[in-house]
Amino acid sequence: MRIGVLTAGGDCPGLNAVIRSVVHRAVAGHGDEVIGFEDGFKGLLDGRHRKLDLDAVAGILSRGGTILGSSRLERARLREACETSKDHARDYGIDVLIPIGGEGTLTAARMLSDAGLPIVGVPKTIDNDISSTDRTFGFDTAVGVATEAMDRLKTTAESHQRVMVVEVMGRHAGWIALESGMAGGAHGICLPERPFEIDALVKMVEERFSRGKKFAVICVAEGAHPAEGTMEYKKGEIDQYGHERFTGIGNRLAAELERRLGKEARPVILGHVQRGGTPTAYDRVLATRFGWHAVEAAHRGDFGMMTALRGTDITMVPLAEAVTELKTVPVDRMDEAESVF
Amino acid sequence: MRIGVLTAGGDCPGLNAVIRSVVHRAVAGHGDEVIGFEDGFKGLLDGRHRKLDLDAVAGILSRGGTILGSSRLERARLREACETSKDHARDYGIDVLIPIGGEGTLTAARMLSDAGLPIVGVPKTIDNDISSTDRTFGFDTAVGVATEAMDRLKTTAESHQRVMVVEVMGRHAGWIALESGMAGGAHGICLPERPFEIDALVKMVEERFSRGKKFAVICVAEGAHPAEGTMEYKKGEIDQYGHERFTGIGNRLAAELERRLGKEARPVILGHVQRGGTPTAYDRVLATRFGWHAVEAAHRGDFGMMTALRGTDITMVPLAEAVTELKTVPVDRMDEAESVF
Amino acid sequence: MRIGVLTAGGDCPGLNAVIRSVVHRAVAGHGDEVIGFEDGFKGLLDGRHRKLDLDAVAGILSRGGTILGSSRLERARLREACETSKDHARDYGIDVLIPIGGEGTLTAARMLSDAGLPIVGVPKTIDNDISSTDRTFGFDTAVGVATEAMDRLKTTAESHQRVMVVEVMGRHAGWIALESGMAGGAHGICLPERPFEIDALVKMVEERFSRGKKFAVICVAEGAHPAEGTMEYKKGEIDQYGHERFTGIGNRLAAELERRLGKEARPVILGHVQRGGTPTAYDRVLATRFGWHAVEAAHRGDFGMMTALRGTDITMVPLAEAVTELKTVPVDRMDEAESVF
Amino acid sequence: MRIGVLTAGGDCPGLNAVIRSVVHRAVAGHGDEVIGFEDGFKGLLDGRHRKLDLDAVAGILSRGGTILGSSRLERARLREACETSKDHARDYGIDVLIPIGGEGTLTAARMLSDAGLPIVGVPKTIDNDISSTDRTFGFDTAVGVATEAMDRLKTTAESHQRVMVVEVMGRHAGWIALESGMAGGAHGICLPERPFEIDALVKMVEERFSRGKKFAVICVAEGAHPAEGTMEYKKGEIDQYGHERFTGIGNRLAAELERRLGKEARPVILGHVQRGGTPTAYDRVLATRFGWHAVEAAHRGDFGMMTALRGTDITMVPLAEAVTELKTVPVDRMDEAESVF
Q: Which residues does ATP bind (chains A, B, C, D) (predicted)?
């Protein structure tokens, strides 16, 4: 069997672990041939590809990024790109294509699949917002980086009697904010799923200080926004990929808190640090299992599907089902955290 | 409501996170009172306890160990201890007892529950071998520590053309070896669940060297043992708690490999480093959720149960069900790892 | 002997290690009494202090922040504060005061010393810019945090063909940028000591991309600024403590690079994460040695001095000498880095 | 100029950083050619070498191990090897050889230099025991790994009322034990430089427990040994490289403490984990500076010398001076630590 593999969309720790696992299982396990396309669908469109054998993936398990490179596909060019991709995949003799990517990539994958190309998808998002899978790799690493930052900030906040506002990733789903906020012991968590009440946040911080506590840490998702009419705020622009640009809720919230509290409030914007570097053990295992099962699915002819974690099992779910709706944080998870405003 | 809490058995990162979460939910959420017993059931038997308010649990989320101390209960004294515990719990006006512990503790908890004491258990084991829950806290931290050690050992093994044998925890279940072996890219994994074939291990290493690879890493669970008749080996003694002492499979395997391969093979025994220190974000979140749900179960009168992770949900399962059998590594998980011998 | 200790100025990993070491050496070694003043000189002025015995410092060696709290002293109130401090120190029967702090604190310390109060200073700055000492504690931790961030950013930059601009601390001295830039393999380093040439930076990045490299990382100190006339730039305001506010060189440099290169350039502002959390082993050892030698100096009557690292030795240098000039990055250190623009 | 480079002896984080720095400075800075010999002097003897250009060293700064491989030279073959090496170096047109290694390597380097080969050495030892340099790279990483292990062990020791004995590297010099013991807050430190008093250790632990402390951590160098007649002990064998094999002081000390104290005492042998993996920022900077200055020395014709750190400067010292005596821990450093037995 000749397997094509590509990585597309934003960076995500664990991509290399999937690539390595696909190659190990396919080449060593089944005697397949694996072709890697460079820079996502662009490489498939342009014909930039290389053979991936065992040596090509040696030592990459613990490396962040993707040895294949990545790119985003503009939404407008999606349909055209699908046609070309399909033709090229056939030109290169690809029996099955394993695209590893997020919502956009899986949508493209579904279109390719509908157009007749054998596809087995592997979901990827550090935001953990793909439905049909309990978790996605990269998320655990991002949560770990954000938690470590909050651990560090707490001691400095405590010594200097100050409020820290930590902005973490999460445009439409607040999973990183929720879990790193819980793990980092944030006193307030603001999620895209629930417009936050600035008055309640201010009151919580004031109560902490009145109880003799000397600091507070607020964890805010980049996509969080205040309840209407409670704080000056304007929506972000829409970028060329159809994403709303959310810039600066961390900065704005810190400024607003400082103004209302009369205490120092400092923003820390974690940004791309959350996306890069060595994946956690959890993410390496999940990514490795996804890769292994993607190859098995390909050999079973289980096309138009993607790998998914359900409980402790890896199962296959239809691509169609996977991309219909975003998995957002449900209310009962907010209740557990006890600090979602 | 008056809630008693205690931690028993071996150390496990996340214990403090459970204690903190129980106190937060009970005291701040429900206006309960929380009493902590010191050194596990011993403190309950001896009447050593202290009140746990919000200040008592400040800053402990990220700390390893347990602020309450722990101890193991000798199996022989279990029944007697249960009777006394029950009486004492009533003397202290405990409406519900939340014991946080492993198999032994949960067995004791079940006996206490059968004897009429309201109990909500929280499972704890770094070995991840309690059935009825997808995962237990502490496991992710242990896997992380073992993976980081393998990351470090790989570079030194590679530079010096040597075989490294890393012994990790896991007496009866090989979850730590399986997942850290996968995450650390171990070339061989030996689990308690499957007697390993020393010949096959030797052959794998020889093939690696013949392909120009300069090193190999073997990850072995402390409870792993060779297939009968393949290597000199004797079973460990039974200690006073009913556990078999497994000492030294790492050392013995390294010696055997060195003898057969004619190459340097060095053992590294990770030991207690896996059990201590700051829990990972994953373990802090899981432990916090367990604590929260234990208090909710207590308020619902959901006694004789323990918290469990199923998929992404925390559910309650009967203690009776939880301790009947050990959750060991199934064959399909070994297949995925591709390097279990 | 009755020793007063206080921590002042910005946060710095290792402060607790100094406090612990002072207490250990003084109490256990000499049978002294140690009094800790809260929130820096403020506590000395307000009479807020507490006894520090061995139990009070148990477990703090690895903790960031300062158990005594800190504050900054406004420059305008310095002389007045010194008078009051001197009187209070006598009121509390302090035989020697050990202030742990940066340039401002050591200047105050020198004034107090000149006014007749027995003082042994301990220098503290994550910026490493105090002359007379080879290194200060906290610096190694800050460099470590910044280096780890660059390690993470490199993989994501590489996969997405992007320029990353990492802003690190350093208002007047670029030591953190220099050493984290070298350790993180930054392709460009911008220091306060040398106005950077934006044209040369742009050219370097273009040459990298033309050689097939897919990314570049620029490490910029918060106090760096462009060579005159080369890029739009205005100086920051002076804050109430006499410090120039440098905000945003990272953001501005990223925007300028993106405009000139026609490639994505993303800023990452590390901020307070560099100041907090567990100190590295290096910083713990240096802080511990400083504390030990401060107590020894106090017992020798070596007043008006501060501890300093010279080579591998801890020596005492006059406070007068210590605060006369800032230790900036010399040209030969820039040459070694090979990437200072 | 044509520069040969090789790495020899035990593994040490930072070796790749030196290689990279030599190549960067030589190739990009001076237009030189760099040849790397594989597996230390063996590669020079066997003629196994490869060209090292900028691409060959891309991405290795943060990687442990050595891309060139390493080997130990048997002491008996030293003189013969030198002759052959000298001839081969001339055959390959090497203008200067930069060997990176420890005491054995530098001794060989000195012999080669005396025999007329232009040599610039770079000292390497995680043990930090080479005189003439304040520090060597790799040491900081080893201390960091050992300190992190002690941080982890402390929480588990505290919760379970147990003594932990941590054996760290250091055959003849106790620097790693001293500094990680200080940084990890060990209550007892045993060094090769001072035979330890088991009675005093036992007394210290008993006093701790009598003061209500629930644990103790002892940090012991692998080369430490008890004062004569105080504890059963036999010296190790001499291996083929002339090193005494010290195996098991950690295990033996734990057993002895358990016997005398009647409390659980557990050994943890850190072993090779200390030698591998990502170097700390400190070690990367020091290694990078050594590489840079080695090339500069080569261009100045400063042969028969090695790089050394003196205070904050890199200087050149004669190889002859460097290897005459081992740098051991002096008494005043033991006094500072306050817990050396």
A: 10, 72-73, 102-105
Shortest distance, CA D30 to any CA of chain B (angstroms): 29
Q: How many Å separate Cα D125 from the centre of its chain?
A: 3
ipTM of the complex: 0.94
List all chains that touch chain C, counting a touch as 3 or more CB pairs closer than 8 Å: A, D
Q: Which of C140, C151, C289 sits opposite D336 (nearest CB)?
A: C289
D95-112 pLDDT, tens digit per residue, is 999 999 998 899 999 999
Question: At B162, is the secondary structure helix, strand, or coil?
Answer: coil
- CB contact, 8 Å: A310 with chain C? no
- Whether pLDDT at B275 is above 80: yes
Cβ–Cβ < 8 Å for A32, A22 = no
- Could you give the C-alpha distances from A307 to A72, A304, B339, C209, D202, in angstroms and in order? 21, 10, 22, 36, 57
Mean pLDDT of all residues belonging to chain A: 91
Indicate the DSSP class of residue D338. Answer: S
- The 3-class secondary structure across A35-103, one letter per residue, is EEECCCHHHHHHCCEEECCCHHHCCCCCCCCCCCCCCCCCHHHHHHHHHHHHHHHHHCCCCEEEEEECH
Buried b (16+ CB within 10 A) or exposed e, B285-310: bbbbbbbbbbbbbbbeebbbbbbbbe
Q: Give me the domains of chain C, ranges plus CATH numbers.
A: 2-138+279-323 (3.40.50.450), 142-276 (3.40.50.460)
pTM of the model: 0.94
In whole angstroms, what is the distance from residue A271 CA to residue C273 CA? 13
Mutation to test the D interface, candidates C152, C155, C285, C328, most D Cβ within 10 Å: C285
B10 is in an annotated binding site: yes
Q: Which three-class secondary structure state does DSSP give residue B83? A: helix
Confidence (pLDDT) at C247: 56
The alpha-helical segments, DSSP class H, found in chain D are 15-23, 30, 41-46, 78-91, 103-114, 139-160, 175-183, 198-210, 249-261, 281-300, 319-322, 331-337
The pLDDT of residue C179: 98
- The three-state DSSP-derived secondary structure of chain A is CEEEEEECCCCCCCHHHHHHHHHHHHHHHHCCEEEEECCCHHHHHHCCEEECCCHHHCCCCCCCCCCCCCCCCCHHHHHHHHHHHHHHHHHCCCCEEEEEECHHHHHHHHHHHHCCCCEEEEECCCCCCECCCCCCCCHHHHHHHHHHHHHHHHHHHHHHCCEEEEEECCCCCCHHHHHHHHHCCCCEEEECCECECHHHHHHHHHHHHHCCCCCEEEEEECCCCECCCCCCCCCCCECCCCCECCCCHHHHHHHHHHHHHCCCEEEEECHHHHHCCCCCHHHHHHHHHHHHHHHHHHHHCCCCEEEEEECCEEEEEEHHHHCCCECCCCHHHHHHHCCEC
B252 is in an annotated binding site: no
Q: Which two three-digit tokens encode residue C98?
A: 């050990």
Question: Which residues share a beta bridge with B315?
Answer: B308
- The β-bridge partners of A226 are A196
- pLDDT tens per residue across span D37-94: 999 999 988 889 999 999 999 999 999 999 999 988 777 777 777 788 888 888 889 9
pLDDT at res. C90: 84
Q: Identify the band that residue D246 occupies on the pLDDT scale cut at 50, 70 and 90.
A: very low
pLDDT at B245: 45
Six-digit token string for C265 = 């350039």
What separation in angstroms does the CA of A319 have from each of A104, A134, A323?
A: 12, 15, 7
Q: How far is residue B127 from each of residues B55, B98, B136, B152, B309, measured CA to CA in Å?
A: 31, 21, 8, 23, 15
Tokens at D173, concatenated: 């010099």
Give the active site residue among B39, B127, B129, B283: B127
Please tell me whether B127 is known to bind a ligand: yes
Q: Is residue A46 annotated as a catalytic residue, yes or no? A: no
